[in-house]
């Protein structure tokens, strides 16, 4: 099928302007979209009414979120503000080509905070699809915009939106400065969780989104930490003789799978989140690494060279029979299960290039999603629709979000240096 | 290889800066800087101090012991014959000087997954460790770890850079 490739820069400009209002623009992530879904839903987001400045922030966040998803075609709403109370002129919106319309306003809530209200309409059926109100403090207006975009996305696509989620990634500012960053899914509101002179790799979100596990080389060797984001408190989960790496959370958040070389070779162990109760899971002389729990908690998927080349295998959490999952090609690594457990993202070497691939676990069919050369570290968005990867462009590390059908690609770059090791966080509850 | 002979002052800096990147680090207890503090004077003690005391045999460029790197072929973890004398010399030094400890850091080139490369680098470090142990070093003197592709000696992206980065380094206490 012919796939139409678009370059949308409007969203980028909007982000840039807001970045100036919101926070220092230093090192901010910028997002560029290439490609779009085949059947984009035409939607109009009218200028919200109420307090003009606040309304502008919220309206532009909603528009930028929906546009960036690649699933919507933004219809020009004109310049007349429209609140959730204004009766929509359905025929007029129909003639503009909109299938859906959202309007709203920002006002003061009874406790002095901001209240963002909106309503979503089905233009063709001339009916209300939904609406909500979100109360927030003024600095958090963008968050209200993301919440509204999440509702619109879910009403129109049937899938939960991921605009209120966060991403973690590592910035290599120089050979002796590494930073672990947390940002909103649109690259804004960036915060630094850790600064180190030595590399940081393999960040992994706890299922509740409050902690990150990662590997830090600050002690001149790889050690696994769990870092509570709000307090900055860090716990050493694994610092045994030899290397400690590749942390992955169990779905209940109580355990981590880690890779330890303490008993020789690289073997997978499970450990409680406080570092206690270390138990060995794999037992052979081959490399076993990159563990990832299935969402039902029944299996651990991992990379092993036990068959002579790196391939993906799985084993029950209690041990037992090991099953090989990947067969095509001589290098398949970094398995990451989709949130519904039905597919697996991984990196496959094809013609000397490392490319993001997805396997449907029922049929074992593999689809290569990119034509890039140095993809690594895939992680699914919590709604399972996108996969975030690190890749390279012009010799620099960038992040890319790719839809699971490979059609939509968003590129996230940072002015301050190399970006790598992305991890998409869970739903923000 | 010369770069591994870290001058004492630089080693101090490295050790001092690398140990606690974050003051809220509760993992390793209180930051080193605050431990000896009273009356406005803070004593900073780091592991780097010892490097001043390294015997000349380990640092003299004319001594084989000043060489610390073992290079590996692509996709290989075998210590090549040309490095046998070097590893043997270090094993003898460790045997004769039981108070010395060594950290062996394995490295890989940049191609492929970071975590898989970490495991490959571990295999290289383990190969050196096993050879040292066979030749008389005690297990409690030597630790093998991996830096994977994270600390390239040559930041280039071609075969000559990759060859420099497929490497194991032998560092003595005070040098890491």
What does this molecule look like?
The complex is a heterodimer of chains A (429) and B (176). In chain A, α2 packs across α4. In chain A, 52% of the residues are buried. In chain A, the strands form seven sheets. A six-stranded antiparallel sheet of chain A has the order 1-2-31-30-29-28. In chain A, strands 3, 4, 5, 6, 7 and 8 form a six-stranded mixed sheet that branches. Chain A is globular. Chain A is mostly beta strands. Chain B folds into two domains: 47 residues, no CATH class; 119 residues, 60s Ribosomal Protein L30, Chain: A (2-Layer Sandwich), CATH 3.30.1330.60. The N terminus of chain B is likely disordered. In chain B, α4 packs across α5. Chain B is of the alpha+beta class and 176 residues long. In chain B, strands 1-4-2-3 form a four-stranded mixed sheet. In chain B, 34% of the residues lie in helices and 12% in strands. Chain B has six helices and four strands. In chain B, β2, α5 and β3 form a beta-alpha-beta unit. Classes of the chains: A mainly beta (429), B alpha+beta (176). At the A-B interface, β11, β15 and β20 of A face α1, α5 and β3 of B.
Structural class of chain B: alpha+beta
Determine and state the CATH class of the largest domain in chain B: Alpha Beta
> Terminal Cα separation of chain A, in Å?
38 Å
SS field, number of helical segments of chain B = 6
Q: Topology, pairings included?
A:
The complex is a heterodimer of chains A (about 425) and B (about 180).
Chain A: E1 7-8, H1 10-22, E2 29-34, E3 41-45, E4 49-50, H2 52-68, E5 72-74, H3 90-96, E6 100-108, E7 114-122, E8 127-136, H4 141-157, E9 166-174, E10 177-184, E11 191-196, E12 200-205, E13 211-216, E14 223-228, E15 234-238, E16 244-249, E17 255-260, E18 267-272, E19 279-280, E20 288-293, E21 299-304, E22 311-316, E23 322-324, E24 332-337, E25 343-350, E26 353-360, E27 365-368, E28 376-380, E29 386-393, E30 396-403, E31 409-414, E32 418-424
Parallel strand pairs in A: 3-5, 3-6, 4-6
Antiparallel strand pairs in A: 1-2, 2-31, 6-7, 7-8, 9-10, 9-32, 10-11, 12-13, 13-14, 14-15, 16-17, 17-18, 18-19, 20-21, 21-22, 22-23, 24-25, 25-26, 26-27, 28-29, 29-30, 30-31
Helix pairs in contact in A: 1-2, 2-4
Chain B: H1 8-18, H2 32-35, H3 56-59, E1 69-71, H4 84-96, E2 102-107, H5 114-134, E3 142-148, H6 159-165, E4 167-172
Parallel strand pairs in B: 2-3
Antiparallel strand pairs in B: 1-4, 2-4
Helix pairs in contact in B: 4-5
């Amino acid at each position: 099928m012919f796939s139409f490739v678009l370059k949308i820069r409007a969203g980028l400009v909007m982000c840039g302007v807001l970045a100036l209002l919101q926070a220092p623009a230093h090192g901010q992530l910028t997002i560029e979209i290439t490609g779009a879904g085949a059947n984009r839903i035409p939607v109009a987001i009218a200028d919200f009414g109420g307090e003009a400045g606040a309304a502008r922030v919220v309206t532009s966040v909603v528009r930028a979120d929906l546009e960036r998803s690649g699933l919507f075609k933004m219809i020009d709403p004109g310049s007349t503000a429209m609140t959730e109370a204004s009766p929509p002129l359905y025929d007029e919106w129909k003639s503009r080509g909109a299938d859906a319309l959202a309007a709203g306003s920002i006002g003061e809530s009874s406790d002095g905070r901001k209240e963002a209200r909106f309503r979503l309409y089905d233009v063709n059926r001339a009916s209300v699809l939904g609406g909500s109100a979100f109360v927030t403090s003024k600095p958090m207006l963008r968050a209200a915009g993301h919440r509204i975009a999440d509702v619109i996305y879910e009403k129109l696509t049937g899938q939960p939106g991921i605009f209120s989620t966060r991403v973690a990634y590592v910035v290599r500012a120089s050979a002796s400065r590494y930073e672990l960053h947390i940002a909103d899914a649109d690259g804004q509101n960036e915060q630094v969780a850790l600064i180190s002179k030595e590399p940081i790799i393999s960040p992994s979100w706890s299922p509740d989104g409050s902690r990150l596990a990662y590997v830090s080389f600050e002690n001149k060797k790889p050690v696994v930490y769990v870092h509570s984001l709000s307090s900055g408190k860090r716990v050493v989960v694994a610092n045994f003789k030899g290397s400690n790496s590749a942390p992955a959370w169990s779905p209940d958040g109580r355990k981590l799978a880690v890779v330890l070389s303490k008993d020789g070779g690289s073997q997978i162990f499970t450990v409680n989140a406080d570092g206690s109760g270390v138990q060995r899971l794999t037992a052979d002389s081959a490399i076993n690494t990159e563990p990832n729990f299935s969402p039902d908690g029944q299996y651990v998927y991992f990379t092993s060279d036990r068959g002579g080349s790196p391939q993906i295998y799985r084993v029950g959490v209690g041990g037992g029979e090991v099953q090989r999952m990947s067969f095509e090609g001589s290098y398949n690594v970094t398995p990451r299960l989709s949130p519904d457990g039905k597919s697996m993202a991984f990196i496959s070497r094809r013609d000397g290039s490392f490319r993001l691939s997805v396997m449907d676990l029922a049929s074992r069919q593999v689809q290569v999603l990119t034509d890039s050369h140095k993809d690594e570290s895939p992680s699914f968005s919590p709604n399972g629709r996108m996969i975030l990867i690190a890749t390279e462009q012009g010799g620099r590390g960038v992040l890319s979000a790719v839809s699971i059908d490979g059609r939509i690609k968003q590129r996230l770059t940072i002015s301050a240096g190399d970006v790598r090791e992305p991890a998409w966080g869970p739903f923000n509850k | 290889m010369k770069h591994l002979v870290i001058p004492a002052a630089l080693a101090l800096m490295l050790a001092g800066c690398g140990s606690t990147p974050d003051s809220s680090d509760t993992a390793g207890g209180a930051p080193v800087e605050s431990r000896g503090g009273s009356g406005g004077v803070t004593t900073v003690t780091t592991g780097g101090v010892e490097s001043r005391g390294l015997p000349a045999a380990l640092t003299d460029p004319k001594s084989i012991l000043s060489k610390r790197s073992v290079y590996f072929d692509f996709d290989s973890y075998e210590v090549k014959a040309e490095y046998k004398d070097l590893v043997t010399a270090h094993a003898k030094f460790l045997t004769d000087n039981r108070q010395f400890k060594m950290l062996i850091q394995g490295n890989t080139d940049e191609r492929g997954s970071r975590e898989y490369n970490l495991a490959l680098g571990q295999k290289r470090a383990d190969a050196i460790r096993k050879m040292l142990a066979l030749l008389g070093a005690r297990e409690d003197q030597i630790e093998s770890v991996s830096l994977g592709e994270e600390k390239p000696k040559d930041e280039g992206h071609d075969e000559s850079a990759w060859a420099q980065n497929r490497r194991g380094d032998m560092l003595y206490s005070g040098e890491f």
